[in-house]
């Protein structure tokens, strides 16, 4: 038995059913991750305009403790990053800027959690389904060869039925990929939007700190 026959026998014995189970499990995981990410991003959003007004009032009076308290009431990404800058307000704008950059990197890591899975599944699920179809087609031709050798009259009909069943794996792969791709693209935009919104508070903190330091230097 040569290498091709060995591989063929392994594929025929394994069948294509495991591919369908894998794609089904992947689809369930996609749904769970999509719901979890949607709820997570919803909690990390906030009223940036209102928060900016309150924060500006505290920073104008150099009430850094009150500013930190105000930011701590919000669960938004922007508030978490600005809070890191306010915590180092006494170190000046440069220190606050570096602290907020570090906080932004940590927040990005949390925001992008599980997105790699969605992107990978969206790109590769159709290929997994196609692999299952190939296994099914190999089995169909194997059955055809046996039917013709035995003189079976319905060998062609059996082969077409087997190929039709094999194509289910391709359809399942596409079905598993579509929600993953849609969720991945949507969440990528959400992450970009949330991180862009952080500039509202970050620049506000730096502006007040720079103004305060300039005023102190003038004195």
Layout of secondary structure:
Layout lengths: L2 H12 L2 H27 L4 H13 L3 H9 L4 H11 L5 H19 L3 H35 L5 H64 L1
Helix pairs in contact: 2-7, 2-8, 3-4, 3-8, 4-5, 5-6, 5-8, 6-8, 7-8
Would you mind describing this structure in some detail?
87% of the residues lie in helices and 0% in strands. The protein has 219 residues and is an all-alpha fold. It has one domain (18-136, 171-213). The longest helix is centred in the C-terminal third of the chain and has 64 residues, at 155-218. The model has no long low-confidence stretch (mean pLDDT 85).
Number of helices: 8
Largest sheet report: none
Number of strands: 0
How helix-rich are the residues, as a percent range? over 70%
Give unreliable regions as ranges: none
What's the mean pLDDT score?
A: 85
Overall geometry comes to: rod-shaped
Proportion of residues in extended strands: under 5%
Distance linking N and C termini: 92 Å
Features:
mainly alpha; 8 helices; 87% helix
